[in-house]
Design goal:
The structure is a single chain. This protein has 216 residues and is of the alpha+beta class. The protein has one domain. The chain has five helices and 15 strands. A four-stranded mixed sheet has the order 5-2-8-13. It has a four-stranded antiparallel sheet with strand order 4-3-6-7. Strand 3 and strand 4 form a beta hairpin. The radius of gyration is 21 Å and the shape is elongated.
Amino acid sequence: MKSLKLFIYILVLCCLAACSFGTETKVHNQLDTTLIIEINEETYTLKPNKSVEVSYTYGENRIKSTSNNQVIVDTVVTITREMTEDGALINATGKPYYIMTEKYGGSILDNPIYDRMIAADSSTQNDKFFADYKEKKRERMMENMKIVVIDSIPIIGNIETIPANQIVISRDWYYGLNANFEETIESNDASDSFFGKSVKKIFSEKKLLEYWYQQE
């Protein structure tokens, strides 16, 4: 995986949490063919890997999508204000999306120096204590790790799979489909220098696979 660094600025004017990428609701085409989607009375035509902001109403919405004259989605969904207050993605492709969390900076608890401090502390000179400490550290590192398989390729990481049949995906990511994880970020939270900062990005199947190959 690529190296991620965290810079802390106490008086930083633009921190990660304050940046805004908009709160619109979009539909995205992750297919290799043109996607036609109808939402109520509006029709949108999207080329592969294109997105567009869409119109809808709070309450029931008729959504139908086709590609190569094949119906993918034909359903009625109820959209609430809470679902879209921070933005959302309408998934009409019949494929899953993925939200990956990357860690910027490292936790002091995962630093080898901290391990040596624990080992040298006279109060921890107990084999069972140190074994328990190492096991809890391993569990902490692995608790969010998932394996996702795309085109027979296993991808390992802190990845949430959004099922293909979930039409409305409420936004809880920072980096959108066409944005990339940055090599460095800025934060005005001093605790991030001790524990790191977790940042999310949403991926289509193809883009997650591309990202995985780039890290090898």
